[in-house]
Amino acid sequence: MSLRTTHSILSGPSLPLKSRLTPLAFQLQSRNRNGTTRTLASATPTPQPDPQPASPPLQSLTNAQKKYLESALRVNHAGELAATLIYTSQIPPIVKAHPHLRPLMKHMYDQEAGHFKTFNHLLAKHRIRPTAMYPIWYAASTLLGWGTGVMGREAAMACTEAVETEIGDHYNSQVKELLRWDDEAKARGETLGEDLQALIKDVRRIRDEELDHLDHAVGEDAKMARPYEVLNGVIRAGCRGAIWVTERV
Amino acid sequence: MSSTTALRTLLRTPASLRLLLLQTPRSTYHSYDHAEQPVYREAERTILSSALAHVPIHGFTQEALTLGAKDAGYLDISSNLFPKGTFDLVKYHLVSQRLGLKDRIQFPDENFGVGRKVRNLILERLRANVDTGIVTRWQEALAIMSLAENIPASLRELGALADEMWFLAGDTAVDASWYTKRASLSGIYAAAEIYQTTDQSTEYRDTEQFLDRRLEELRTVGGAVSGTLGWAGFQAGAMVNLLRSKGVMI
C-alpha cells in the first residue's frame, strides 16, 4: 500500500489525475464535493455574510495580524506602565525643587495613568499576556524616573523628551499599520470591526497626548540638560531595547 | 519523531489530506468581532470524537483511534492523520473539554467571588472527566502526557486551561500576578486530577476535599507573601520620606 502510494505520488503529473488519488483521498474529496464541510457551530472559519445589506461584511483577521496586535498591545501596556512609574518617582524631587512645575507634572501623570488604564482594560479583554519582564521594567523605570528627578529639572525634562520621542514613533507606526489594514479592508468592501476602529481612535489620541508631553518637556529646557547627548542617547537606546524585548516576551 | 518516520507519515497520507498535518501556531489575541478559527478540522474532529467513545473499553490506544476512524466512516489508515497517535487522542479530550468549559458552567449569582468561581470551574472540569467516562483510563493518558516528547505540548495545554479558568472567573489583573496565578492554578489542577484517578469515594467527594485543602494552602501562602511584600514596600517608602524630611535631596 505505502509503496504503491509513494510511487504514484512521486511519478507526478504525467499520469492522469484520477490514478494519483488513493481510495481514502478520493472518498474524502467526494465528501467535500457533497458539501458536508460542517464546522463547530460556535466557531465558523469564514465570516458569515451580514444579514443586513447596509453594513459591509467583517474582515477576518489573519494570524499575522493577530500576532501584530498581540505584541503591539503588550508593548503599549508595558510602555504606559513605565511612563506612570517614571512620573511617580520624578514628581517628589522635582516638585520640591520647583514648586511651579506641580500642575504640569500632575497633568502629565494623570494622562499617563489614563493610558495605562486603557491598556489594562484592552489586555484583559483580548486575553493578551502582559510582558514577562513586568517586575524588571517596574524597577528600571522607577530608577530612571528617580535618577533623572534627582539630577534636576532639565535632566527630568530631557528624560521625558527622549522617552516620548521613542514612544511617539512607536505609536505612529502602529497607527500607520492599522490604517493600512483599514484601507485594505475598505478596498475589498469589508470593515475592520468596531473593536479595531476604536483601537485606531485610542492609539491616535494617546499618540497626540504623548507628543504634547514632548512639547512641554522641550518648553521646560530639556535641551539645557548638562550631558544632553548622553542622556538622550542612552534613554532612547534603552527604550528601543525595551520595546524589542517586550514585543517578544 | 525521527525524520524518516515523519517523511513516511507525510507520504502515506493522501495528498488531499496532507495540509491537515500542518500545525499552525495560534496567537492569543482574542477577537470579539471576528469568529475564532476552529482548532480541529472536520475530518479530525469526527474521527477523534468517535475514537474517544471507545476509550472506556479500549483505553488510550491506537485501537481506539482505528475504531473511531471506522465509526466515522473513514478508512483505518486515516489514523495516519495523527502522527502522534494516542497523544493526539489525549490532546483532543483536553482541548475539547477546555473549550467546552464555558458552556458547562454558568454563574447566575453576580456576587460570587473570583475564588469561588475558580473552585467551581476546577470541579466542573474534573466532572467532565467523569461524564465522558474516561476517568478510569486517565492514568494511561497521564503516562502518555509525561513522555518527554509530549511534555511541552501537555504543559502548554495545562497553561491554556488555567488561562481559560481565570478568564471565565472574570479575573482582569494584567500585572506580574498574571503569571503566578496561572502557575499556581496549573499546579493545583494537575494535583487534583492525579488524585481523582485514584479516588474511590462516592461522587469523588475525596477529590473535592483534596482540592479545598490545596486552595486553602494557596490562600495562606499567597496571603503571607503579599503581606510581607506590602510590609517591605511600606518600610522602604517610609525610609525615603524620612530622609527627605531630613533635607537629603532624594
TrEMBL record, chain A:
Compositional bias per record (Polar residues), positions renumbered to this chain: 28-40
Matching InterPro entries: Ferritin-like_SF, Ubq_synth_Coq7
Catalytic reactions of this protein: a 5-methoxy-2-methyl-3-(all-trans-polyprenyl)benzene-1,4-diol + AH2 + O2 = a 3-demethylubiquinol + A + H2O
Topology in the lipid bilayer: Peripheral membrane protein
Keyword Plastid attributed: no
Bias type Pro residues, positions: 46-56
GO cellular component: extrinsic component of mitochondrial inner membrane
Subunit structure of this chain's protein: Component of a multi-subunit COQ enzyme complex, composed of at least COQ3, COQ4, COQ5, COQ6, COQ7 and COQ9.
Record-stated family: Belongs to the COQ7 family.
Protein name in UniProt: 5-demethoxyubiquinone hydroxylase, mitochondrial
Organism of derivation: Extremus antarcticus
Taxonomic lineage of the native organism: Eukaryota, Fungi, Dikarya, Ascomycota, Pezizomycotina
Gene responsible for this protein: COQ7
Automatic annotation (TrEMBL), chain B:
Pathway it works in: Cofactor biosynthesis; ubiquinone biosynthesis
Single GO BP term: ubiquinone biosynthetic process
Pfam families linked: COQ9 (PF08511)
GO molecular function terms attached to this record: lipid binding
Annotated compartments: Mitochondrion
Keyword entries, A-Z: Lipid-binding, Mitochondrion, Transit peptide, Ubiquinone, Ubiquinone biosynthesis
Domain COQ9 C-terminal: 151-221
Transmembrane segments: none
Cellular component per GO, a single term: mitochondrial inner membrane
Keyword Mitochondrion annotated: yes
InterPro entries (alphabetical): COQ9_C, Ubiq_biosynth_COQ9
Family according to the record: Belongs to the COQ9 family.
UniProt function note: Membrane-associated protein that warps the membrane surface to access and bind aromatic isoprenes with high specificity, including ubiquinone (CoQ) isoprene intermediates and presents them directly to Coq7, therefore facilitating the Coq7-mediated hydroxylase step. Participates in the biosynthesis of coenzyme Q, also named ubiquinone, an essential lipid-soluble electron transporter for aerobic cellular respiration.
Protein name, per record: Ubiquinone biosynthesis protein
Organism from which the protein derives: Extremus antarcticus
